[in-house]
Amino acid sequence: MSKFKEKLLETLGDLSYGELNEFKLVLQRPETTSGQPRILKRQMTQRVDLVELMVQTYGERSVEVTIEVLKKINRSDLVQRLSEISSGSKVCSLRPGALNAVSLPYAGQSFSSPLSSDEHFVDKHKLELIRRVTNIASILDELLVKKVIDDEKWEEIRKMSTLNDKMREVYTCMRAGDECKNIFFEILKRQEKFLIEDLQKKDHVLFEG
After folding, report:
1. For the chain, give me the number of helices (H) and strands (E)?
2. Within this chain, do residues 125 and 202 fall inside the same structural domain, yes or no?
3. Of 25, 45, 135, 149, which sits 20 to 30 A from 168 (CA to CA)?
4. For residue 102, what pLDDT band results from cuts at 50, 70 and 90?
């Protein structure tokens, strides 16, 4: 994803669920877009799709339109973030709904264990991950961008009071299959690097023993 789109998505990610709905309503008003084509409300599903639609519809004016809407919903504090994007930034296309799935190791896969074909790393270490993960906000943001969760689920989990409850709810989204688990694992490797390395070392000791 280009820096141009990343900034837009990052900005929309700071809006609450209610603010995002207000953003969509204001975006549909003719005076907001100065006579340019409007994006239909039914097209505005998840945040990443909204960014894609805005870029396709308004091109380099997407930043200008976003700033105008943010001012109207009283979120001028987010305008500064977008000011870093020059009006001449190149806009690249993003395939909506794309899941950048990767092939990732199962627990113990490198050690010829019987578990390697049966149990995914995130399943095997579920209790440890629920108990020890701390960087849940960034993990949720990446799960949203990768379309493992949608806006409503993102908002629902974000409002939960404890980290453990948030992680338990994240795990309910892993029932969709190994593709989601692979993406989740890749995110964990970035956001909880030392925790994942510690769990992998324990696997190594277990299977070496």
Report:
1. 12, 0
2. yes
3. 45
4. very low
Q: How many CB atoms lie within 10 A of CB 186?
A: 16
CA 53 – CA 47 distance, rounded (Å):
10
Averaged pLDDT of the chain: 75
Task: Establish if 95 belongs to a structural domain.
Answer: no
In angstroms, the CA 209 to CA 204 distance is 8
Q: Is residue 104 part of a domain?
A: no
Domain boundary among 35, 67, 86: 86
Q: Are 191 and 135 in contact (CB under 8 A)?
A: yes
pTM over 0.70: no
Domain-located, residue 115: no
Residues 67, 82 contacting (CB under 8 angstroms):
yes
Three-state DSSP class for 163?
helix
Q: Which residues constitute the domain of residue 137?
A: 121-206
Return the pLDDT at 84: 58
Q: 106 near 119, Cβ under 8 Å?
A: yes
Dist. CA 40–CA 61, nearest whole Å: 18
Residue 16 falls inside a structural domain? yes
